[in-house]
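Example 3.
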Amino acid sequence: MPPIPLDQLPPGMKARVVNVFAPGRWNHRLLQMGVVPGGILEVVINNGRGPIVIRVMGATLSLGRGIARRILVEPLK
Amino acid sequence: MKKEITVAVMGQPNVGKSTLFNILTGRNVHVANWPGVTVERHEGWRNYKDHKLHFVDLPGTYGLSASTLEEVIARTYLLSGEPDVVLVLIDSTIPERTMYLALEVLELFPKTIIVLTKSDLAHTHGIHINPHVIERKLGVPVVMVSAATGQGIDELLETIIQVSKGLMGRKVPLKIDYGELEPFIQSVEEIVSKTSLARDFPIRWTAIRLLEGDIDLESRLKKRREEEALRKVAEIREELRNMLKQRPEEVFAQKRFNFLMDIIRESVARIDKAKMGVHERFDRIIMHPVTGPIISFLILLILFTIVFTINTGFPFNILLDTMGFSDAASIVEEYSLAGLMDKAISLLGEYLAYTLQGSPEWLVDLIVDGIIGGVGAVLVFLPLIFLIALVLAMLEDSGLAPRIAVSLNYLLNKIGLSGHAVFPMTLSLGCNVPAVMATRATPNYRERIRLILTIPFIPCQARLIVILAFASALRGIGSIALVLLSYIGAFLVFAFISKLLVAYDRRKGLYEEPELLLEIPPLHKPLPKVVWWLTWDAVKHFLKKAGTIIFLVTILAWTMLYYTPSLEPAVEPGDSIGAGIAKILAPLLYPLGLSYNQAWMIAYALIIGFLAKEAVVSTLAILAGTSSASEAIKVIGLNDPQIAGLTMFSVLYVPCLATLAVIYSETRNLKLTLIAIAIMVSVAYLVSLLTYSIVTLFS
């Protein structure tokens, strides 16, 4: 499957991070939290609007849609 | 002579660092600031065998890059030569993610001990960790502790001693093999060794950081005129980027995680318990775009209503009164915490007045009216501060706070703020001072400035006291309406001015979409002792900062009322220094339909309110010669629209002196602080006139 932005992933879906573009000031923070190319994450909550909640490296994070849009992922399974 | 060992305590946010720190130091803690910044530095001491352990709590950081102030503080401290031993905390329930910091620390500082926290919880989560495997792979001692049960603490203390003596642990920093990146690291090492950085930083570490992009190290090179080295490093970094077809820092992070996962695979076993159930369902509700904000508001509303009721009896006293049970209403008030404090203080005043009979009149007045009045003004708020701090501590420690932040993020985006504003906003309901300091968590600079400028509009406890005083002068439902109007009005102003500031930033091309990136820790029952610590810290903070100012201000207010400009005791309050100043400003209040005498008295109270909002209440009482502010309002003879208008003015007009001091110290910008005052005074004036006009129309 071609990579899609994280904000379009439905809840329960697992995905592999392909690329993060324009992370800006969140660059190092995202890396430290495990959002690295090749890293696996799982979408917990995605309501179409409002922040997205994902699980990555065992921890739960909430991301604003602006950031989520800039994370390209490859859905798994 | 005890040998002192300095131990730095590090960990990612939410791993239980403060809890462990408090246990290790027995709360024998001293708070200062890290040099040159407004980030708090906590340090504490503990005696163990024949050693004196000096613990320094470093700010919670996810790594040691240079992207946040906290990270720079942490790594600068590690390299300062001060710490003998470093503790890096790993959360046993999230070992994968939290080990990342441990690796970054080990690459920098060898005499490190890994502490696995929450080991009791790991069991319930079905996670089993073998510390010996981690010890073997990383070459450092690993100690499992549980803050809840106290288990592992003695072993940890013993290990600290051993490591400080060099009997355990690493002698050199950890070297992770970065594979295809190694030749590049070596090239940069050669360049770095010829710069001034080689003096202050480990060479390999510096090379790796520069390849990852490190604004702190880069700016040091610039400052020391070593641009040539900087340029060469940039070339190598560019070459690396081209080879990898990725940002170098991403690859470094990947390699670290691979290294880490190797260790995890061998040391951590998970029995996947399906304990999701209840928690996940609640999370889905509270972080849902529709139900989320509703639940959040409900939670906050219920909590604060309980706080207010216990403290002042409000709103039940009003409800009882309206329903005709005025005796019951009075009892609720009398036996509320504030009521009881009030009684205790007036008893103290009476006792002192009796004992001081025969002393000079000004002394008796100063002590009874001035000092007791001042002390009373502070102590009356103590129960309220305590309760609010307790509630906030519980929200924080239970994990509810970040969830509430997420649920309100969408609404806040509409006024140019993000979920990071929620915590400062809730703190603001207690006191603006910690609220302004809490804005630090907002990464977007413009958003942070907009927040600092608008947060003082949110009514703090001191203003609540003033609102309640004015409200009690109204009959029945009117008083509840006034309180609601004040809060709703204040929040509307907060939102409106936020939007105006956004428009300003947009015009100047400075606006960036607010963004949210927040960790959501698991929900858990707050540990009573942690809640107690957080609450007590807040109370101490209040007593120190607010207490001294309010106390001094009330004495000043008393002096300005007691003496005439020629320093004779004033016969009438109207002859005093204070009155003189107020009379000059009095005409500004004429549009509210106030007479000359009414106007200067109110003006005087408001001037005093600039120094400390709570003092408005006591000042009105002193001026009118009554024992309570609500009586004073009746004596002064204000009608309902005037009461409404003046309440709105008091709520909005200016942050108190302490808040202004903090705004200045957080922004280091005098112009901004003055702008804050200007915005607030003008908005307050307009809104109060508006309120007065509207209420007049309706009466």
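The helical segments of chain A are 27-32, 65-69. Chain A touches chain B through 34 residues (CB under 8 Å).
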